[in-house]
Design a protein that fits this description.
Layout (H helix, E strand, L loop, with lengths): L16 E4 L3 H12 L5 E4 L15 E2 L6 H15 L1 H5 L10 E5 L2 H17 L4 E3 L1 H7 L15 E5 L3 E2 L2 H14 L3 E3 L4 E7 L2 E7 L2 E4 L3 E3 L5 H5 L9 E10 L9 E4 L4 E5 L5 E7 L11 H14 L8 E11 L6 E4 L6 E5 L5 H18 L31
Parallel strand pairs: 1-2, 1-12, 2-8, 4-14, 12-19
Antiparallel strand pairs: 3-7, 4-6, 5-6, 9-10, 10-11, 13-16, 13-17, 14-15, 15-16, 18-19
Helix pairs in contact: 1-6, 1-9, 2-9
């Protein structure tokens, strides 16, 4: 008899904490809250756990960012990932195989060298490799001057790697459930109830649920739910497309990213190549992949690996990215509305951050104060001109 991984509880009329969004961030927050003793918690998911960005990403993990604030935060997340399988008693298929960010111009190499030095100063392992050094680690890559954008070097980050994204979602969901958290699928939140500048609960398709603390962890749908509350968030939503190929005998043992071509790829244990591109050129909420993405990706991919010109694509998809002006997240209480917390603005970085995001969001809610490591990501930094510029660390920008 198959045993369910988590319960299907009745929706209560009230909870101590309501988390809107059943992705990795929401589930991780619920899990860590429960570990801290806050167990009267509900996770409300409009579809099913992992439906959004958590189930649509390319599952790459790293911490080699550009700013000191970003590096420290994502490195905390990577360290949590390293011991997460043991903590949750679930095989997450985490492979720290090393992460290459290729540079194809002098300006991009200057950016990569700057990142390497900042990472080293914070204690994160990153180094610059020459084309021959890259070739020794990835023999199949083309380092000649034939491509339109020849490889001039790379930022190498040994702790980076890949993980099974749905396993992370399932493990957090099961862990939270075992600690008493109620997870409700097919329960979209239609409105956040606010009275006298204080959160009172939420309105769902199944009725009103009371709570004095509400966290939204909705990624691309954040603006839609938070807008009516009067909270102004500088978010623009773009689709991010990806594809998976037919399986091949394992040959790619590192994560490859191109900062100029805006592509990234890795190989799973089953042999497929999981490939991603930059965000779409204009904002929208569509989640269907396009022929234009496939053509662009194939052209750039073959500049790096021309021998794979006969590879077949098996599936394409897209997810939503909520981008902030500085490409850094927003994890913050809303001081003007007591009991209201937001977790958004992850852009293309969200899955990497799930453990640290969940842990610090839980501390923020349970302890009533913002942990030091996430203070730079307060929502009011845009009004105060305290940006945490991470655009140069994204594969969607050079």
């Amino acid at each position: 008899m198959t045993r369910r991984m988590w319960r299907t509880p009745e929706l209560r009329s009230s909870y101590d904490v309501i988390i809107v969004g059943g992705g990795a961030h929401g589930l991780a927050t619920a899990y860590y809250l429960a570990k801290m003793g806050v167990r009267n918690v509900a996770v409300l998911e409009a579809r099913f756990v992992g439906y959004g960005g958590s189930g649509r990403n390319t599952a790459i993990l790293r911490s080699n960012y550009r700013t000191e604030e970003g590096i420290r935060f994502y490195d905390q997340s990577l360290r949590l990932y390293e011991r997460l399988a043991g903590e949750l008693d679930f095989n997450l298929m985490f492979s720290q195989q090393g992460h290459f960010t290729l540079g194809h111009s002098e300006s991009s190499m200057n950016t990569l060298m700057t990142r390497a030095e900042i990472n080293k100063s914070v204690g994160v392992e990153s180094t610059i490799l020459s084309p021959p050094e890259i070739k020794r680690r990835v023999p199949e890559i083309d380092i000649s001057d034939h491509p339109r954008y020849p490889i001039m070097g790379a930022l190498y980050h040994p702790p980076g790697g890949i993980i099974r994204h749905d396993a992370v979602v399932w493990a957090y969901a099961r862990g939270a459930d075992r600690l008493g958290v109620d997870i409700h699928n097919q329960t979209p939140v239609q409105k956040i109830v606010i009275e006298n500048n204080r959160v009172q609960g939420v309105v769902t398709n199944r009725g009103t649920v009371r709570s004095g603390k509400v966290l939204t962890a909705l990624a691309g749908w954040t603006s839609e739910l938070c807008g009516p509350t009067g909270v102004k968030l500088p978010l623009v939503t773009y689709p991010l497309q990806a594809l998976v190929t037919e399986p091949y005998k394992p040959w790619l043992h590192h994560v490859i990213v191109s900062s100029n071509l805006h592509i990234y790829l890795s190989q799973t244990d089953r042999g497929e190549l999981v490939c991603g591109d930059g965000i779409d050129g204009y904002p929208h909420y569509g989640m269907r992949s396009t022929l234009g993405f496939l053509e662009s990706y194939a052209a750039h991919f073959l500049e790096l690996f021309p021998a794979l010109h006969k590879m077949k694509v098996m599936r394409q998809w897209a997810g939503l990215c909520d981008m902030t002006p500085d490409y850094s997240p927003i994890i913050s209480p809303i001081e003007a509305i007591e009991g209201f917390y937001i977790n958004c603005g992850w852009g293309t970085y969200g899955f990497k951050a799930a453990p640290a995001s969940g842990l610090n969001s839980a501390r923020m809610i349970a302890e009533g104060k913002v942990p030091e490591i996430i203070r730079p990501f307060h929502y009011n930094r845009f009004q105060e001109n305290r940006l945490v510029g991470e655009k140069a660390a994204a594969s969607v920008s050079s």
